[in-house]
Amino acid sequence: MGRKRNAMVDPRTGHRLVSRRDFISHGLLAGLGIFTAPAWTSLLRSGSARAQGLDCGIATGGAGKIPFVCFDLAGGANIAGSNVLVGGQGGQLDLLATEGYEKLGLPVEMMPDRAGQVDTELGIAFHADSAFLRGIRARTSATTRANVNGVVFCARSDNDTGNNPHNPMYGIYRAGADGELVALIGTRSSDSGGRSAAPMSMIDPSVRPTKVDRPRDATGLVDTGKLVELLSQEDATAVMNAVEQISRLKVAGLSEEQIVRDLIACGYIHSAEVVARYGDPSLLDPERDPAIVGGEGSIFGPDELRDGSFRRTASIMKLVVGGFAGAGTVELGGYDYHDSTRATGERRDFRAGEAMGAVLEYAARQGRPVVVYVFSDGSVASNGELDESEDGRGKLIWKGDNSSTAATFMLVYDPAGRPRLSREGAEQVGWFRPNGSVETASFPGAGNVDLLVETVVLNYMALHGEVGRFPQVLPGHGLGSASELDALVAFEPIRTG
């Protein structure tokens, strides 16, 4: 099982940090069966065992930052044009040439200049028949959708490779996102938590994503041993507090330097916190959350978590939106769908949209903001051939990979109201040429995936009003001067927490 931190210095605070689960696994909960009598626990509750003035780095509620969930659509999915609209230098509705939209999968009668082909219900403009949008609508309420806005990043990336450094989670962590239990999680056991890599310059091995792709992985993040089976949760917490207090008395007589004493004391404090907060592991179980499944009007139906895509999504969103993890990656496979049909891509895009919508709706029901970021390793293009099948929806067939038609996008939900753009046209960063290819000179990240990720981190920080801190979070970034950074920011700050 992954660990939140090794015994090392947190680069953001300077504190030495140790995983609470390390202390648990080394026996700090073992041998406590002697404290089983009610008389003991009533005595133990009489004193506080908290170390006065000792900062143990215990995060709460995602460290006060906006929860961040990214979707890694493995294989090279279509995002631009047929899903999120893209345009020229003037923004999303600065229309491309006919050949450009055909390359992006749209027949003439479905091009954005035709009536009813543009949909702005989510703030950012989608194609009216976008499969992503249809999927999002299937899992969200109109009230939720009214409080969403977005930005599309026009940026190429290589096809069919896990080496695209698309994943921004380490940068999001550097920007301050953290969780009560673990910093980062992902549905794949990889350095990024998904298929696409993370930029090497951002990777921090001490917060390598913990693999979570099913409910039991979520509940398995905490292990309170036998203590809560022997006692009530309240009594178990009292026992741990007493053990910590006794330990501090013993440590006071040792010759180790103060930092070692603090580490030992923090170990007991962390263990007590685990018991106090998570003695009932069902708190982390998406299958026991009526907002997610099993309740009246729940996001998923009673049997839908048997589906791997939904099971992974539910597990990640439960932990991230709940503040138990700072950021999470959901990898969805099968997006290399240029199989001489349009129908396969439509079905898979709809399923991805449902997963995105589930995250937005769960955040709305929890009264919390959330950022959903969607990327894929490369993209696809059409040669103009029509798929006339019912599932093809009268659109053009995806015929092959094409890295020049790629894009990524971000959706932001705020329970306080629709996030506001920083300026007119800010919903598109970069632009496409009239022929349907990314203009790689349109912004630094348009032809460089590492810099695209930096742009995503910048926009996450902008939502917190922290653009000025960006050079400290990513020193040596390649996005230019302060004025050049401002030109890449899509949103005004929103409230956090």
Describe the structure.
Helices cover 30% and strands 13% of the residues. With 497 residues, the protein is an alpha/beta fold. The strands form four sheets. Strands 8-7-9-3-10-13-6-14 form an eight-stranded mixed β-sheet, sandwiched between helices. Strands 1-2 form a two-stranded antiparallel sheet. A hairpin with a 6-residue loop joins strand 4 (118-119) and strand 5 (126-127). Helix 11 packs parallel to helix 12 (343-366). It is globular and about 70 Å long. The two termini are 28 Å apart. Residues 1-9, 15-52 and 224-233 have low confidence and may be disordered.
Compose a concise summary of this entry.
The chain has 497 residues and is α/β, with parallel strands linked by helices. The protein has 2 domains: 16-46 and 224-278, no CATH class; 63-218 and 283-486. The chain contains 15 helices and 14 strands.
